[in-house]
Amino acid sequence: MILGERNFIALDDNGKFIFMLKLDYAPKCFHSFVVGYYWEPGARLITAVVSDSSKLHVYEEANIIWAAQWPNQSPAPVAIQRSNMQGLAGGIVTLGARGQLEVGYLGAEPFTFQVQPLNIAELSFAQAHKELQQLEDEIKEAVDVRDMDALNQQAADQVRLSFSIQAEVSDDLDTLLLDVPADVAVKELPSAKGLLRFKIKADLAELQLIFHTPSGVRCSQDTMSFVDVSAGTSQELKLDFYIAELLHIHSTKVEVVASFVTPRGIPRVIQQSAHLPLAMFYRVCQPQKAAGIKLTYSITSRHVVPKLGTFFGEFLEGQADAAPHALGLQLLCPGLDKQSELITVVAAKNSNRIRIQSDCVETFAMILERIVETTLQLDGSAGLIKMHKKKPKRGVLNRCVERLMAAPFLPVQPILHRVDVHHETQQNIRKQTEQLEHLWLQFKTLHRQLQEQQEQEPKEAITMQIETNYDQLILEGDKLVEIRRDERRQRCDLNCAVALAKWIIQALNLEERVVNVVGSVLSTPIEDWTELSWEESMAPGIDMLHHFGPLTRSKSTSTHGLLDATDSSKESFDYGRFRRHFATLFDRIVRLASSPQPAASGVSAVAEQPVEVGEEQRRAKQVDEIGNMQRMLGDQGMPLAPAKRKSNMSSSLEAVEDDEEYDEEDLREDVGYRKEYGTGTGTGTTTGTGTGTLKKTSAQPRSEWVNEDFELPTTEELFSDLGIWW
C-alpha cells in the first residue's frame, strides 16, 4: 500500500497494479490491515487514512465505508495503528505531534442515512402563505436592524466615494482602443465621460470596484481590484461610457459598487449611482402629431415647474423658441428594425400636465425615468421629507402622487406582445438545443462504430455519415447562435416594456403597499436561465398576487377565491395561464387607480353624501335597477331599454387615441376604467318571487351598484367587484 500526496495506490506481491484512489484531501498517515485470513475468499482489506484536517477515512479496498471527525478538534495524529488489547478488540492507537499516545474505538455500526422522499403533494396557497409569514417573522427576530444606519455610515466613512457622469456627450471615443464592434463604430454614436474619486480612511485587506451598466452600454473599466490598501490612499479614475451593442436600453442608471474587507475579515458594501445623459440615446427631431400610445403625467409638486426645460434642457439649448411646448426625439440605437423610432413630449400650456406619446414601447422607459427621477429629486432638494425615510403604512396612498401622478392607463397589449415574442424564442432555443443534443449523440455513436470496425472492413459509408452529421451539427449550431442573438434583443425589448409599466405604476393613485408589491415583482433587468425562463420564474409571483396580498380578489380569510390554487403544481408550465394572470394584474391596477377615492372610505362617503338627481336620471336609474334585478334573479321579464351609459374603456391603445389635448374631466372620465359608486333617489321596483306580482316601493336612496338585497356594497363585495371572477 502506497500513500502519495493526493492518491492512494495498492499493489500485489508481484508488483501488479490493483487500484488507485485520487484523494480530495491532504493525507497525513495511514494504516492497512486484513480482517480474516488473507487466503480466504471472505478476507477484507481495510485501510484507515487520516487527513490533515483531523478526519479519519476508513476504506474497504477502494470504497469508503466510514468517515469520522477527530474529537475535540485536536491536531491530526502523525501515525496510526490497530491493536487488540484485553477487553478492546480492534482499538485504534494514534501518536500525536507532541508524542502523546491515545487509544480510541470507532464504536457501533454506522447509521445509514437515507434521503427522505420529496413531498410532491399539491401546493396549498393558504398553507404556503402561512409558512412564509412564519419564516419572515423568524428572520425579523433574528436580524437586528437597529444598528444598520450606524454600520452603513461607518462603512461610508472608511471608504469615501464620489461618482458622477458629465451631462455633455462627446464624439472623440477611441473605438479601436475600446474594441467597439464594427457595426456600432460605423454609426459614430456619442459617448459620455464619468469620474470616480475614492479616498480610503482605514486599512483594507481587499477593495473591489464594479460598474453595473444597462445592457448594450459598457464602461472603459468594468472591474478594478486592489489588495492591501493602506489608509490615506486616494485615487481619481476617468471613465468612458459608450454604446457597444445596438439594443434597446431600458434605463440610463449606472451603479458603482465598492465592496471591501477589513483586516479583521469584516465585509462591507457601498453603492452609488448616476445617470447617463439622454443625448447618448436620442437626438432631436420633428414632433409627432399623433401616436398609438399616449401617457399623461400631472406634476403636482409646487417646487417643480412643469416645462420641458426642467426635464430635457440638454435638447433645448440653442433653439429659437426659449420655452417650446413640444419636443420630438428619435432613438439612435434601434434594434433590428430600420424604421425610425420616435417619441414626442408635450407640455400643456395652461396646466401642469405632460403628455408622452409614441408608437414604440421601447422609446418610453428612459423618458419616463427622467421625468419621475427629476421630479422626485427637485422636490426632495426643496427641503421636504425624503420619501425613503418614511416607512409605508397600511392603507396609506402612494406618496409619489404628492409630487406627480400618472393617468391610469397601461399599454397592456404591446407589453404582452413582447412577452409572447420572448416566450416563443425561449421555446425555439429549447427545441434547437434538443436537436443539437440528438445530433451530438449520433456523432458519438458513429465515431464509436468507426473505432470498433476491423481494419479490413470498408469505412467509406460510415465516414460519409460522420461528415454529413458533422455538417448538420455546424448548421444547427449556427442557427442556435442566431436565435441566441435574437433572444438578447428581445430580452432588451421586454426590459423596456416592463420598465414602462413599472414607471407608470410608481406614479398611480394607489395604496403604497400595492405599488411596492408590484414594483418588486416587475423587477428589471429580466433574466433567463438554462432550465428556467423569465416567464416560468415570474409565474409563481404573479399567481400569488391573485390569491394573497393587496391585489387579491377577496379580502376574506376563508378559502374563497382559491379555486385555482393548486393549478401551479402541474408538471408543465402553462404559459396561457401566466399570460392571462399577467393581463388581469394590469387590469386590476388600472381599475383601482381609476377609482375616484380610496375603496375603504368610498362606501361611507357615498352613504353620507346623497346626490341630487333630476327626474330623467331617476327614471333611468329605476330602469337600470330593474334590469340588474332580473339578471340576478333569472326572471325572464319584459325586455327593458337600458339606460344610456358610457361604456367602460379597457386598458388598450384605443383608450387614449385622440389628437386633442385632454382637459381635467377627460383625464378623469375617458382614460382607463372607472365605475361610479354614487347614490341617488328614485322609485325602486322589485319582483315578487312568491306571488309573481310586481311590488312598488317608496322612493328611497339607491346606489347605482346594487346587490341581491339592494343594499350598498360591503368592503368585501367592493373588492370582489374590482377583482377577477374565476
TrEMBL record:
The residue ranges flagged as biased composition, category Gly residues, are: 679-691
Record domain PTHB1 N-terminal: where: 1-110
Key words of the record? Coiled coil
Occurrences of domain PTHB1 platform (ranges): 277-377
Residue ranges of every copy of the PTHB1 hairpin domain listed in the record? 409-507
Please tell me one Gene Ontology term that the record gives under cellular component.
Answer: membrane
Q: Which GO terms describe its biological process?
A: cilium assembly
Query: What superkingdom heads the lineage?
Result: Eukaryota
| UniProt cross-references to Pfam families, sorted A to Z | PHTB1_N (PF14727), PTHB1_CtH (PF23339), PTHB1_GAE (PF14728), PTHB1_hp (PF23338), PTHB1_pf (PF23337)
| Domain PTHB1 C-terminal helix bundle intervals | 510-589
Start and end residues of each stretch annotated as Disordered: 601-620, 633-705
Compositional bias (Acidic residues): 655-668
Which segments of the protein form a coiled coil according to its record? Answer: 118-145
Q: Does the keyword Transferase apply?
A: no
Domain PTHB1 GAE: residue ranges: 188-274
Name of the protein: Blast:Protein PTHB1
Taxonomy of origin reads:
Eukaryota, Metazoa, Ecdysozoa, Arthropoda, Hexapoda
